[in-house]
Each structure stands twice: as structure tokens, then as C-alpha cells.
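re: that chain from earlier
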Amino acid sequence: QVQLVESGGGLVQAGGSLRLTCAASRTVFSINVMAWYRQAPGKQRELVALITSGGATTYDASVKGRFTISRGNAKNTVHLQMNSLKPEDTAVYYCYVPSSSAYSASWGQGTQVTVSS
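^ sequence. v structure.
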């Protein structure tokens, strides 16, 4: 099973920036779709952004224009550049890989992002 490890979370003031990174291991296959979800306290987990191996991207309306998802230079890595952060962006951010014919779906352990006002 693919193992996902996130890094880059932390505490930042409103208007600031953070960059999250997710690295996938335990697979020899190139991963097609990689995504970021987030879950705020008392709320459902929601899709933030996803990217395909071809570079196609999808963003939630609430982050469009502020967040950028990109594939890393290392194989099977993905970044989430978060600019102009708002207090409502506070959540645990999870990396996610949907299943394919080569591997099962996997979630990372999550990284906390806290934006203070």
C-alpha cells in the first residue's frame, strides 16, 4: 500500500503563506492523481485541490487564486502552496491518493495548519 507523509504545516498569521509537501513511498508505480483534503473541527473533510500526472488541476472555490497545487521534482510528490491565508483555512490537511489498478487508496496522517487573525 502507498504510504503518504505530509510536512510543512504550522501556525501563521492571516495573510501569510505556508507550503505543504506530501511524499509517497512503498510504490514503484507513478501515481496518477494526488490530492489535498482538509478537515476543520466539527466539519466534514473536504477536497482542497487535486492534480493529475499530466498536470491538470482542480480547486475548491474557496481557495482558487490563493492556493497552488503542483507536482514535485521527486517522483510521487505533491506540494500545496498556500498564500493569503485566512483564519477559515485552519484545519488538518491530508494528502490523498485515490485507488488505481496498481495501488489502493491511501491517506496521509495529516498536518495541522492554524491561521491566526
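The chain is about 0% helix and 50% strand.
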